[in-house]
Amino acid sequence: MSDIEWTKALRRAALEGAVRVEVSWMFKPGEAAYQLRSVDAGGETIGDDRDYDILKAKMTPLERLAEASGSSKGRASLDLVAGTLEIR
């Protein structure tokens, strides 16, 4: 799981008009929860009305990266303007 893979997957998942995109995850026995958020320049979350199949295609690489992180809870965020990646 490299920074390049995270950056590529997050850029791909970002909605038009976003300046930041982030994915968070939480794993419990038998359960996985993910949240994807694109944020505009005003700090507001951009509504996501993409078709399920399109959204799933964008989320699958992020889900795999989250699972490979080894963390039961975490967040990856990409500043699309500065190109900075933060993973916690």
Explain what this protein looks like in three dimensions.
The protein has two helices and four strands. The chain has 88 residues and is of the alpha+beta class. The chain has a four-stranded antiparallel β-sheet, with helices on one face. A hairpin with a 5-residue loop joins strand 3 (73-79) and strand 4 (85-87). Helix 1 runs antiparallel to helix 2. It is globular and about 35 Å long. The two termini are 13 Å apart. The mean pLDDT is 95.
Taken as a percent bin, the fraction of beta residues is 25-35%
Classify the oligomer: single chain
What's the count of strands?
4
Strand order of the largest sheet: 2-1-3-4
Taking the alpha carbons of the first and last residues, their distance comes to 13 Å
What's the pLDDT, averaged over the residues? 95
Secondary structural class: alpha+beta
Structural Rg: 12 Å
Give the SSE layout.
Layout: H1 3-13, E1 20-28, E2 31-39, H2 52-68, E3 73-79, E4 85-87
Antiparallel strand pairs: 1-2, 1-3, 3-4
Quick overview:
The chain is an alpha+beta fold and 88 residues long. It contains two helices and four strands; from the N terminus they run H-E-E-H-E-E. The protein has helices spanning 3-13, 52-68, and strands spanning 20-28, 31-39, 73-79, 85-87.
Keywords:
2 helices, 4 strands, 88 residues, 4-stranded antiparallel sheet, alpha+beta
